């Protein structure tokens, strides 16, 4: 499994989300303390950037229609989305956040 540097840990606000590109893949990075989650940064319902949404507990809410996605599984936890988004493995190496584009689940 190959990991690529995505950003610095400090680039992601605690309790927040940023959108980045890993290669040509849009990735939403969500930070909760020292834990970082990586999800495909396109809503499965409306094809807009999830990184423009809000983080609530263990979910990322799409800003357009309010679909929520579980940070660990990518599964929708509320309508209107009914398809999951891919999630990716994350490693923290010192101050760097590394992401593997291989699907975690």
TrEMBL record:
InterPro entries: Rieske_2Fe-2S, Rieske_2Fe-2S_sf
Domain of life: Bacteria
Pfam families, A to Z: Rieske
Residues annotated as signal peptide: none
Keywords from the UniProt entry: 2Fe-2S, Iron, Iron-sulfur, Metal-binding
Domain Rieske: 4-99
A single MF term (Gene Ontology): metal ion binding
Protein name, UniProt field: (2Fe-2S)-binding protein
